[in-house]
Structures are given as C-alpha cells and as structure tokens.
Design a protein that fits this description.
There is one protein chain. The protein has 446 residues and is α+β, with helices and mostly antiparallel strands. It has helices at 4-7, 13-19, 55-81, 125-129, 131-139, 182-185, 322-337, 358-367, 388-392, 411-418; strands at 22-27, 32-37, 143-154, 161-173, 177-180, 191-196, 202-211, 216-220, 242-247, 255-266, 281-284, 296-298, 304-313, 316-321, 351-355, 378-383, 399-403, 406-407, 424-430, 434-440. A 6-stranded antiparallel beta barrel has the order 3-4-5-8-7-6. The protein has a 6-stranded antiparallel barrel with strand order 9-10-11-14-13-12. α2 (13-19) packs across α3.
Length: 446
C-alpha cells in the first residue's frame, strides 16, 4: 500500500486520496501487476451501489503500474550486472518517474518543434553591406606605389637619394608589367624608379614604354607571379555608377576614396588641355590628388575602368578610360615583340571631335533632323586655323560617319587611321541630310 507519507511531497491531494485506496502488487516471477482496490459504500445510498468516485483509484493505479513496469526491467538488468545493487528495492523510486530537466536545457514549449537552432548566427549589417571593403580586399594586391628618387640630391644625414616625386600604378601583367601615367615616370632627370608592392617588397623599375600625348606608360620590374588587376570596359560606363579610386595621395600609400561617375565622356578641350590624344575623360567626384596619378579607378565588379589622371578642384577629378589604355597596351606589346619601342608620334589634322553616343544622336535627330539610319560617328567640335582639316574644308558641326570607307565608331578609330601614311577621305553629313566627301592630307610630325 502506498501511504500518505510517501506521497505527501510528490502528489496533489486528490491523487493521494485515490492511491490510498489502491494497492499495487508486482510479481517478479511472472512480471504481472495485481491491482487491488477497496470500495467504500456510501452510507447515504442504497446497498449494492458503490461510490461514483470508485473508478478513480483504479485508473490512477493502472497508470502508476504501467509506469512501474517500464522502469523495473532496466533496473533488474542493472542489478544483475552489479551485485552490490541488491539492496535496491524491486520497486522503483518515485523520483525516477518524474521528468528531469537540466539547468541550462531549454524546456519544450509543448509545440513539438524539434528543429535545431542554426549553426551560424545571422550576418550583421557590417558584414552584409560593406561592399566597398570587400572590393578593396579583392583588388588591393594589384596596386603598387611608385617612388622617384633623385640620385643627384642626397639626404644630408643618411646619404640616400631624396624622393623627388611619387605616384601610383597597378599590375597588368603577372610577369612584372605595371601601368601608370607618363607624367609619373618621365621627365625626371637622374631619376631612380622604385616600385613597392602590397606585401612590402621593393623593386627597381625601368620605363618600358611611354606615350606622352595619351599620358600613359608601362614600367617593368624583375618579379614574377604578381596578382593582376582585372581590366573592365569603359564603353558601357554609366553616370552615377559607384567607383573606387585607389592610390597613394601625398605619399600616403594604399589610400582608398569612393565616389560616383559624374560624366563618362568629358572632352579634353573643356579642361583646357592641349596636345592630348585622349579623346575623352571620365569625370568622378572620388578624391584624386597628387600621388593618386596612375592608380586604378575601379567599378563594383573589381575591374579597372580608368586610370586616375588629374584633379581640377575638390569633387571634380578625371581618369583616362581603360579602353584607350587597352589600345596602348596592345600596341606596346606588339612593338616589344618586333624589338622596338612604341612610336607615339601621330600625324596631325587639327580637329577636336566628340564621339556620338545614343543620347547625342537622338538629340541631333530632333534638332537638325539627320538621317534616321545614323547610329555611329563623330562630330567635329573645333578646327584649328590653317590646319590640314581647315585647309581641306572641314567645318565645326560636320558629322563624320566613314573615313576611307571604314565606319567610324569613335575618336579612337580616327587616331588609328592617323598612324598610317595614306590620305584620309572623310564621308560626312552637312546641311542636315546632305552627304559630302572631303579628302584631308595629314601633316607628318617630323
């Protein structure tokens, strides 16, 4: 019999009243449970009728007995394996029937959700939205710091050559080829060029090729397996795109500035530049200053789309389009294969031109009603007096679609033809829809 003392601390009052009327006997020989109950007759009722609450002891005893069976068998096996456990009763303790909860274990809410928590905590906003930091981490190994040492002037205390200027560049060939601005590495008498990589190594560099009119140059260092900077395309650049300018302004190496593209094709004459062959510049509000020259202007795909060139005022800086630099690199590579340097001299015709893009073409069709089938070409913006173009009869406002029968898609096509030796036959539109043929004989630079 279960007594009230045994259940005084573990069961509610109603359970204690029920169990005192229920006796549970467990036969270890046959693994049977015998439940005996004592029914109390209500003196107020008729003979033969039991109390309506008589079923409660039976139900309670049955449930308790089932729990006993599930617990006794494992305990018997434990006793057989350990003879010292003979003092243990064949009836389990009540504590074994109660649920056990660890101190640091979450309690099941009863909804049956057994899904384990995610192994990794969710990403923070800092790790999700710092795309500029991810971009810099990806592209910075290809950036280099260029330092020009004047061997004619030495420091009084150390005796080492003093630094006369500095600039930036980036790796375009894993065999040690670096692209930078021409004004960074030329016109420096008694100059010694030092190139510092991102890992701290310093190499002596030599100028391999240079084009003064385009302000581009290549420098070679004796190092292999360098990380190359990916070259993108500046032809599909859009105003408003995010860009990152990398370089070493004011000798502060590995400096990062950000901004957007303000204009994709700024003519050099608007900047007051004379004698430059770069057809147009990329304008950005990313900070570019002395020392940034030669460094890459990078889009969000980690591709160089320009070469930092100059700053006019804070918020207005310019870069050379990478498509023009690709042409320079290809010609330089071809010239190196033939054993000579790049001949940067071109013939001269004396015009300033603007490449026609879809926006300009649509505006021209609206204003002067040019033919609807025109979708490429250049427009002559300015002509130098007494130049070959002026003497041949070209005029500002002429729209050139072909030269020597070849379609003209931009100013680069014109510059390429100027490197030849033949006369140039211009097919152009003047007076709205009238086509004209004008032949220009360029002047030789020598």
């Amino acid at each position: 019999m279960f007594s009230r003392n045994l259940l005084s601390k573990f069961g509610p009052k109603s359970l204690r009243r029920s169990l005192v009327q229920c006796a549970v006997e467990y036969d270890t020989g046959c693994n049977q449970i015998i439940i005996k109950t004592t029914q109390r007759e209500n003196g107020d009722q008729r003979k033969g009728k039991t109390d309506r609450k008589g079923l409660l002891p039976i139900i309670s005893g049955s449930l308790l007995g089932a729990a006993v069976v599930s617990q006794v068998e494992p305990e018997e096996e434990a006793i057989k394996s350990d003879p010292k456990e003979t003092v243990r009763s064949s009836f389990p303790s009540l504590a074994s029937l109660l649920p056990v909860v660890s101190a640091a274990e979450p309690i099941d809410s009863g909804q049956g959700d057994k899904t384990p928590p995610p192994p990794n905590k969710p990403k923070s906003r800092r790790s999700q939205f710092n795309f500029i930091a991810d971009l810099v981490e990806e592209t910075a190994p290809g950036l280099v710091y260029i330092e020009i040492k004047d061997t004619g002037v030495r420091d009084y205390f150390t005796g080492q050559p003093v630094t006369s200027s500095n600039g930036s560049g980036f790796v375009v060939g894993s065999d040690g080829l670096i692209l930078t601005n021409a004004h960074v590495v030329i016109n420096k008498p008694r100059a010694n060029i030092l190139v510092r990589l991102q890992d701290g190594r310093v190499f002596a560099g030599r100028v391999e090729d240079v084009d003064v009119k385009s302000d581009l140059a290549t420098v070679r260092i004796p190092c292999k397996n360098l990380p190359e900077m990916k070259l993108g395309s500046s032809s599909d650049l859009r105003p408003g795109e995010w860009v990152v300018a990398m370089g070493s302004p004011l000798a502060l190496s590995n400096t990062i500035t950000t901004g957007v593209v303000s204009n994709i094709a700024r003519p050099p004459d608007e900047l007051g530049l004379q004698g430059r062959d770069v057809p147009e510049y990329i304008q950005t509000d990313a900070a570019i200053t002395f020392g940034n020259s030669g460094g890459p202007l990078i889009n969000l795909d980690g591709e160089a789309i320009g070469i930092n060139s100059m700053k006019v005022t804070p918020g207005i800086s310019f870069a050379i389009p990478i498509d023009y630099a690709k042409v320079f690199l290809k010609k330089s590579a071809d010239a190196q294969k033939t054993g000579g340097g790049l001949d940067s001299s071109r013939r001269y015709i004396g015009i300033t031109m603007i490449t026609l893009n879809p926006q300009i073409i649509e505006e021209l069709k609206t204003r002067i009603q040019i033919p609807q089938n025109i979708n490429h070409g250049i427009i002559i913006y300015r002509i130098v007096l007494s130049s070959p173009a002026d003497n041949a009869g070209l005029k500002p406002g002429d729209i050139v679609t072909h030269i020597n029968g070849k379609p003209i898609h931009g100013s680069r096509d014109v510059y390429k033809l100027l490197e030849g030796k033949e006369d140039l036959n211009f097919t152009l539109i003047r007076d709205q829809t009238k086509f004209h043929q004008i032949t220009v004989r360029p002047e030789s630079p020598h």
